[in-house]
Design goal:
single chain, globular, binds S-adenosylmethionine
Length: about 220
């Protein structure tokens, strides 16, 4: 995404009832928030997308699955602002947004508090010296392993083959995850494609004829 500083972004994010303002205060309490669709004292699972961009995917997931709580995380206010404008106040009640860097997640989630993590078209950081910034680097896998329960899932999609290969290597070398499914052509994969919700980047890249890569890893 090309980033411009949008002066209206910060006040809009700060005033939005759908944006979480003080995530640290929710540590251990994410599932008991009023927007969690669980009922009768039971809490619904919490699924998050890291790097939600303008939020097409997570919003559609929330619409399709009213019994799951969704949190979209995006580090740039200018991008979050576009997601808010897109929504125009019509957001599903089981969806919230958070403007934060994924590296800070351990300061506001307790171990086991997130049930599933979606990573969609994460920035590839092609230079080897930037590999630690990739959201599938083992530095991040360690954070996800600490925050997911046993059997919690990471679902990762990309059009970038080098990032996909890197991610497979990182996950296979990481003791806390099993790679349970992979495809190098999601949209023609009869097992993995049904129910697929396309992201903004996915629609753009697949329209250019690029195959979409996907993997699912499960917490041991
Ligand atoms: N997921 C969307 C899609 O598939 O259309 C957007 C993909 S875009 C290439 C990646 C997004 O991830 C950007 O908006 C970027 O700001 C965000 N991002 C990258 N690193 C992040 C991090 N460490 N924490 C939170 N967001 C991050």
């Amino acid at each position: 995404l090309r980033l411009r500083n949008i002066p209206a972004a910060r006040p809009a994010v700060e005033a939005s009832p759908i944006c979480i303002q003080d995530p640290v205060s929710l540590m251990g309490a994410w599932k008991s928030q009023p927007w969690n669709p669980g009922s009768d004292g039971a809490s619904a699972p919490l699924h998050i997308e890291i790097g939600m961009g303008k939020g097409h995917f997570i919003t559609e997931m929330a619409r399709r699955n009213p019994d799951i709580a969704y949190l979209g995380i995006e580090r740039y206010e200018s991008v979050m602002y576009k997601a808010l404008l897109r929504m125009g106040g019509e957001e599903p009640s089981n969806l919230r947004f958070l403007c934060e860097d994924a590296g800070n997640m351990p300061t506001f989630f307790k171990p086991g508090e997130i049930d599933r993590i979606y990573l969609n078209f994460s920035d590839p950081w092609p230079k080897a010296r930037h590999d630690k910034r990739r959201l599938t680097h083992h530095r991040f896998l360690q954070i996800y392993a600490d925050l997911l329960p046993v059997e919690g899932l990471i679902e990762f999609k990309t059009d970038n083959e080098a990032l996909f290969d890197f991610s497979i290597e990182e996950i296979e070398a990481f003791p806390d995850f099993d790679l349970i499914k992979t495809t190098r052509d999601l949209h023609h994969d009869d097992d993995m494609n049904p129910g697929n919700v396309m992201t903004e980047y996915e629609a753009k890249f697949s329209a250019l004829g690029n195959p979409i890569y996907k993997l699912i890893a499960k917490r041991r």
